[in-house]
């Protein structure tokens, strides 16, 4: 089957000051799939992920060359960044719910976009929490502070918060690395459900996790994409020696 | 010397230093309290510093005395300003009150005056009105100067009593409400705190937001920070001089609440900017990123996420500021004046408690009164501190689990 391409990175270079963190990245990410980025620490996975919703704008020293085509538009060009971020949501490594009530956390994004209607917000909050498999656990305490939730619940809240924006893509940077196995399982479960509706890109350090949930996997090394293919191919029959070394744990 | 010995020595020095600090603090506060506490009472807090002369209209009405003569002479309405009663008291039936002759001391002047020492609860004095029909209050301690145009100066108590008993119908009484209180200073102080915070807080908070969230780190920011730090180190008399030259004279605000507040606001700015900046810096980047990643604008992020997190730090700034305003004397002396009155508008002068304490100590040599004002200042600072701490706890977003 021929899936639509959501992101297309062409010869993307990224510099932190003088340091080149991404080197000529070419990557096509398909719609409604889970794409996993793996690779050793410091190889540029997060950096690339943050390019996809222009979060690197926040870092003054960053300089980007090359293109990332999203829906026919180069997002490195002169685009509406706010609009891009509403369409490309992000979940961070450490759960970062705002110090507000659970309800306010979910309603935050839509409210910032100018949604004021209470009933509309109510349904949005409920739908998002249901989709993030959190509704049953929090429906009686929507007005309590989100900081009172457990780590796993907080991370699902952050996913719900992203979903509430009705994005097309959800970027996740090691979303389960701060969580225990049970919470991790819940979130992995969630991701396989969410990929029906959303394009999901996930950075992970867990080979098993990449194997379990992703459709395609990209292996990053020293700022380059060494290999990008269907996940089963990467894990059973990698084309590059370095990929094989990494996934078999023989990597230096 | 053994290690143990050194340890013991170091420890004892630390204890000694702490002890001395504590003792000095206790001694100062104790001194102020011992000196001043005898003057602090309800009248002191609710009366103005200046005497108030007014005419009261009272319907004459015979009210018999309900207490016996012994307890009448025991009624001791005189506060510390009267040495002793020279004559009386004598109960006068047709106004239902007793008066006494006292030597009234105020500053350097000493006068013999007639004061009410006891007022019956049915006394017509309690329903006194002024010429426009507004209700007036007359209490014990008030000075009686004349009735229906007859001045009492130089008369004996018996003559005065006879004179009053002689009058009938509506009596026009000239009464003096004794001064010596600090009500106007308390209110001026609160006004000053309020107005200067209203000016300095928004400016300081927006300044801090600019410095932490918008300004690119570099020369300009460093210069602004350096300027703010320098401002914090300049003695307040300099600000006072500036305020006098600029606000009072150049802008023609006169010596007034507004000139004073503006001057103090400048003094407060560095404190507020610094504490708010510190508070903003401690807000985790994760919150900012989380908000921006949801498509919020920078402004929305700052006002909806970052600032609420910084509330405890801003509350600290408010706390420090209140202390500064209440404690400021030099700058206010020059810009808000030493008139002990409640400023009717932003453009009227008024002295805060601290200025008043300075004034009575320096100009009148009345250390006791200054100490009494000191007690009020200490209490106000403590109360305002507790209040802002409670509000900051209430507003602290991290407290609500
Ligand atoms: N803000 C920054 N300023 C300068 N260099 C940075 C910055 N952020 C990351 N880098 C550098 O860029 C390189 C890639 O970092 P990145 O965070 O993308 O790695 P990563 O693959 O996500 O690693 P990890 O698995 O540890 O999260 C690293 O060498 C890192 O030191
Ligand atoms: Mg990373």
From TrEMBL, chain A:
Residues 7-247 form the ABC transporter domain. SMART domains: AAA. PROSITE patterns: ABC_TRANSPORTER_1 (PS00211), ABC_TRANSPORTER_2 (PS50893). The keyword Membrane applies. GO terms for biological process: phosphate ion transmembrane transport. One of its GO terms (molecular function) is ATP hydrolysis activity. The keyword Endoplasmic reticulum does not apply. Its main location: membrane. Keywords: ATP-binding, Cell membrane, Membrane, Nucleotide-binding, Phosphate transport, Translocase, Transport. It is a peripheral membrane protein. GO terms for cellular component: plasma membrane. It is found in: Cell inner membrane. Part of the ABC transporter complex PstSACB involved in phosphate import. Responsible for energy coupling to the transport system. PANTHER family: ABC TRANSPORTER I FAMILY MEMBER 17 (PTHR43423:SF1). This is Phosphate ABC transporter ATP-binding protein. It comes from Acetobacterium paludosum.
TrEMBL record, chain B:
One of its GO terms (biological process) is phosphate ion transmembrane transport. It comes from the Bacteria. Keywords: Cell membrane, Membrane, Transmembrane, Transmembrane helix, Transport. Residues 186-388 form the ABC transmembrane type-1 domain. The keyword Flavoprotein does not apply. One of its GO terms (molecular function) is phosphate transmembrane transporter activity. One of its GO terms (cellular component) is plasma membrane. It is a multi-pass membrane protein. The chain crosses the membrane at residues 12-34, 190-211, 223-248, 255-273, 302-322, 367-387. Its main location: membrane. Gene3D superfamilies: MetI-like (1.10.3720.10). It is found in: Cell membrane. Belongs to the binding-protein-dependent transport system permease family. CysTW subfamily. PANTHER family: PHOSPHATE TRANSPORT SYSTEM PERMEASE PROTEIN PSTA-RELATED. This is Phosphate transport system permease protein PstA. It comes from Acetobacterium paludosum.
